[in-house]
Write the structure tokens for this entry.
Amino acid sequence: MDDPGLSTSQLFALAARLSGSLWVRMINESVGIGWTAYNVLRHLESGDGRTTRDIAAATMVAGSTLTGVLDTLEKDGLVERRRSSTDRRVVHVHRTAAGRDRLANSAAAINARFDGLFKDLSADEEQVRDFLHDVIDRFATELGVEHPLRLPR
């Protein structure tokens, strides 16, 4: 591909957009749900019973959007909502066994397929990984959100 003189940030943005589109397609094909629903299920992996407010903040979606996503996930039997016993205004979201199974069974296939796109990276891969971690740090700081990854470099 000819490089039309794009800056590093423009190339990164283009790669991110294409990467996101590919992830959405693979998630839909493997899991049968959309990107936001997938992120909700993934967020619940770190602890079932999160509040809708916590989930909305962690997945960076509006509460009204999350309500529709949770309605669909609940209708599909992948999550259930429970009102707090101490504050009826608070709703906790729990994955069902079907939700845990659907995510677990598809995660390996999605990761293998996506990772296969990177199998021929050069010895500079560690520099690329470091760059991406730095970019994620900068973006999270700029957005004022907690770093979304806690992975070893």
About this structure: The longest strand covers residues 79-83.
